Amino acid sequence: MSFFDKIFGGKQDNPERKSFWKKIESEEDLAKAIENSYHHRIAIFKHSTRCFISKTVLSNFEKEIDSLDQKPDLYYLDLLEHRPISNKISEDLGLRHESPQLIIIEDGQVVNSASHEDISSSQIVS
Predict the structure, then answer these.
(1) What tens digit of pLDDT does each residue of 46-55 get?
(2) Is 2 within a domain?
(3) Distance between CA atoms of 62 and 81, rounded to whole angstroms?
(4) Looking at the 3D structure of the chain, how many domains does it have?
(5) What global pTM score does this model have?
């Protein structure tokens, strides 16, 4: 890993490599995530891959999740690659777009959301 990768985040902190992430890459993926919220609480992490703050928050969040005994149902959205889906989330769930953003959904409804330094795994498990 290069010096710049250590500072700014390289391939090793890529969320697709974490086994607990389920990717949202289509409207169908989003619909399945929302459907799963009727069975148990889910969380969607909207991430801007070009933003240093978003990378830092994501890295810290992943460390929190790694330390949990039981992993929550987590979905990851690269909002730069899938901007229309990010917009659909905002419209359908009545949320203002932010990045990074963690959205907690239960029974098809947003029960909590946070952005930037307010993002924490405690919002999912509480």
Answers:
(1) 999 999 999 9
(2) no
(3) 21
(4) 1
(5) 0.84
